[in-house]
Amino acid sequence: MEWSRGTKDLKKYIARIAIGAMVLVLFCGHALQWYRLPLIDNLENVVYDTRLQLTMPQTVDNRIVILDIDEKSLAEKEQGGEGRWPWSRDRLALLLDKLFDKYQIAIVGFDIVFAERDESSGVRVLERLGDQELKNVPQFQEALRQIKPELEYDNIFASKMKGRAVVLGYTFSKEGPELAPKKGLLPAPVFAAGAFADRRMNFDAYNGYSANLSELQTHAAGAGHFNPYVDIDGIIRRIPMLAEYQGAYYEPLSLAMVRVLFGMPPVKPLFADEGLAGGYAGLEWLQVGSLRIPVDDTVSALVPYRGRQGSFKYYSIVDVLNERIDIAELQGKIVLVGTTAPGLKDQRSTPVDPVYPGVEIHANLIAGMLDENIKQKPPYVVGAEFVLLLLSGLAMALLLPFLNPLKSTLVTLLVMVFALATNLTVFHFGNLALPFASGLVMILMLFTFNMAYGFFIEARGKRQITGLFGQYVPPELVDEMARNPESFSMEGESREMTVLFTDVRGFTTISEGLDPKALSALMNEFLTPLTEIIYRHRGTIDKYMGDCIMAFWGAPLADPAHAKNAILAAIEMQQVLQSLQPHFKSKNWPEIRIGVGLNTGRMSVGNMGSKIRLAYTVMGDAVNLASRLEGITKEYGTDIIVGEGTRNAVPDVVFRELDRVRVKGKDQAVAIFQPLGLQVQIDKARLEEARLFQQALELYRNQDWDMAELQLMELQKMLPDSRLYRTFLERSAFLRVNPPGPGWDGAFTFETK
């Protein structure tokens, strides 16, 4: 390294080192939890999910099975099901007999709350009759006394639990103390109130609960909550091992099942050695018999997902009730009763699947406890993260300013590869989830800053334009704008512009006929060339709305030919899409047709939205009309419809008038047109057809229905499949019978968008 580069170079290095140190301090403050950087927290979740997905065994655990209240089970009885949920408790009592007597399972846990009494037997109605209308009828009273035990389904269900390894589930609530429910009977807590009063613990605390009926809870072998710890991104990565309610601490369903399975050993909290840890007193494990369950700073355990849905065998619960499953499939197994039926709303978002059955989360956690392979994320990782950030950040901040770009790149890559390999190794083989995102982002920030320092100073104008408009306009326009960046901004203004909307015909039907992967591939293969066409004709992409594209011409770069460029883009889009049909057919994809609506007029353009999110877009009546025109293309059987403003702005394109219409939301009628092509390219037959239709249109507007029909019928002979001619023939026939009256202006009113 050259340490004597003059005063100017020294100042440059000092400035870069100082900014690098500021970056380091920023991330160290995050690691020490003085404040939180939401981006880093979100990225840390992504990194954790990626590591988990890369190291999952993706095998099926045969020790645990799930009895699924699925669509098959919810079918009506004549279709082989039990009917809609909830079922009567006598059926669940029968289920317990089947599971323990016939199939000889080891244990069953219910991912269900039985908080309400089962009134399906009608016993309450009989009791009311016995207390009132039939109070003095001895025969009725005797009959009621004899049959009442058979109708008390809750008692029957409870009696079947007695002496069996049955674990119930319940849920806590975080609603305000006055609103939080307190239903049913909670089980005895694992730790009594005040058990951790001398330690600063970050328990997940609740204000209410929905638990099981007292007679059910009393006869069950145990019970546990099924409240997940939902991270800020809505994904479930961990489950509270101790949930706090009124100072007492309760276990989850998975832990309750493991304890019942092992004969109800007590739960023992294990703390780090305070002498070795410098006063650190965090709870790091829960001891259950011979098992150790690691917990994090919220006293939660990371769920050791084995893979996507199906990592455990599923059986329809109705097949168990009807003994359609081999005994060997369930014998000696840990059984969880839950649901995958969408209507019962037990689908969760997880790192391995955005829609994942909640019951399988419990299964993963039980398997992880038994295998002792739950990832550890003890509270002391905060200190480990700080030390790693400090060492790597200081080295990078002090070293990179003095290295050339090639050496800086090599050093950064080596540091990142080493850090990644170490982190993955510790995660997979040591079951330790160390933070990685903060260090990764810090290293990349320091590298990027040092590599781009000069660039950011020297080319600020071009980068500003690229940052503002690069996501909307093609690169060649960005380069053109960058030559004079002060002329462009995202502030709102009014301009004469042209806007375009496209939409796929029958997209709902198309999407229903394809699986998600094929649908995504199809979308990419037709949206990409359409976008390229818009860019090629100097258009600006406003947004994608599912299968729809919205684009405009005339901003941010002024374009005197905005209407013509938009028309040419629309025509080429139809041509290119037609040429893609054989390719789609070879992949067994359906034919794709789009409708295009165009309109030219005064509209507002600029950054619009809210403080939370802004978008560079256009607004106004002219924009709304273009959207409506796209929506009515199918009504006339045309691929492209433009407004009068667009037609008037492009004299070298031949149009034919289609109609005068009142679109949804507007009282004033507007003329609509179909572009036929450039004047120099269109053939005489096409021009003659347009002339004849114009005559038919004038006859129609003059209410000369007979002559209009004759003209339209002649046109229809030329094009028998024309939706346009058929539409006007139908209208003429209708109006002949139902005359429109003297105030009729020939316009057709659309009542829908």
Task: Describe this structure as you would to a colleague.
It is a single chain. The chain has 753 residues and is an alpha/beta fold. The protein has 26 helices and 28 strands. The strands form 6 sheets. Strands 20, 21, 22, 23, 24, 25, 26, 27 and 28 form a 9-stranded mixed beta sheet that branches. Helix 9 (253-261) packs across helix 12 and helix 25 packs antiparallel against helix 26. The longest helix is centred in the N-terminal third of the chain and has 26 residues, at 6-31. The radius of gyration is 36 Å and the shape is flat.
Can you give keywords for this protein?
753 residues; alpha/beta; 26 helices; 28 strands; disordered N terminus
| Rounded radius of gyration (Å) | 36 Å
Give the proportion of residues in helices: 40-55%
Number of helices: 26
Global mean pLDDT = 84
Structural class: alpha/beta
What portion of the residues fall into strands of 2 or more residues? 15-25%
Shape: flat
Main pleated-sheet profile: 9 strands, mixed
Distance between the termini: 69 Å
* Number of E-state strands: 28
Low-pLDDT residue intervals, each spanning 5 or more residues? 1-6, 274-279
